[in-house]
Amino acid sequence: MTRDAIDRLTLFFSRQQTRQGLLARAALGRPAPGDAELCLRLACTAVRELRPDGSLRGAALPTIWRAHELLDLAAPVSAESTRQALQWVLQLQDKPGAYGEGCDRERHGRRVCGHYLGGFFAPAAPTERLAPVTLPNGKMYRAEPAARFALSCLALRAVLRGALDRPAVRRHLDSLTSLVEQWTAWGGYFPPDLILAVMHALAEAGAERRDVVRRLAVLAAEHQSEDGGWPNTDFFHALEALRAAGTEEARAATRRAVPFLLSRQRPDGTFGPTAQQERALIGLRALLWAEDVS
After folding, report:
1. What is the mean pLDDT of residues 163-169?
2. Closest Cα to residue 199, out of 168, 228, 230?
3. CA-CA distance, 290 to 294, in Å (whole number)?
């Protein structure tokens, strides 16, 4: 059944002239003859849409994701523009509107205020309503603090992928690590989807945060449902974070999730209309990793 699922995804992605199609064919080891030219074309289009300041429409989430897309495309023409986009993202750190700023009695007691946290990115001004916001993987955050926290983790992943090591970036990593030290339950003040967002972000830091990532992967594995999913959690958000974690505990949890993933696959190989290609790519990568064929 797993091989059939991979075959359906292979057929689906064989005709996609998109970033997801490129990445899927690369993961399968089946690049199309024109993929090199397609990569360059997509990168050029992505670069042309950026403003001179490196942003996409001056908005945080589109610019953060555009940086991820350019890093995925890895085309030489995009190198300078990728740096400009990442520099635009970096200037959002520790600005008004970042998660953790300010303090009150409850937040101070939970160590989630400005006395304990730093380096977070501000995806919007404090007076601007951000939520609900949907990330490119289809995960929606409806609560304002959660939305700001999750977008900061997405931004942190981008600058880490871009190898931008700054004191504020280190503060963000240290802040996330200090939060993990408090987590023993799957949910509570920090819902599971934010725990997964932290695991994915810390995974981008490499060996330096490996032990913390492993701890979170164990926590996720311990709370996996019998059907392979997770309670109160976006399934594809979980699969994506586990693969980023890359630990044996994460791989074992992904293998247990395969039946649940297969039950959601449609005849065309995808998993529904929400973030269709992105979730199809997440599903394909999870299947390949679970089968250890990638």
Report:
1. 92
2. 230
3. 9
Residue 258: C-alpha distances to residues 61, 226, 238, 263, 291 (Å): 30, 12, 12, 9, 10
Is 19 a residue whose pLDDT tops 60?
Answer: yes
The secondary structure element, H or E, covering residue 195 is helix 192-203
What would the two tokens of residue 78 be?
């995009």
DSSP string, 36-73: HHHHHHHHHHHHHTS-TTS-BTTBHHHHHHHHHHHHHH
Beta bridge partners, 140, equal 134
Q: What is the pLDDT of residue 75?
A: 67
Distance of CA 235 to the CA centre of its chain: 13
Cis peptide before 136 (omega within 30 of 0): no
How does the average pLDDT of the chain come out, rounded? 95
Over the range 206-237, which residues count as b (16 or more CB within 10 Å of their CB) and which as e?
A: eeebeebbbbbbebbbebbeeebbbeebbbbb
* CB neighbour burial string for 170-197, b if at least 16 within 10 angstroms, e if fewer: ebbbebbbebbeebeebeeebbbbbbbb
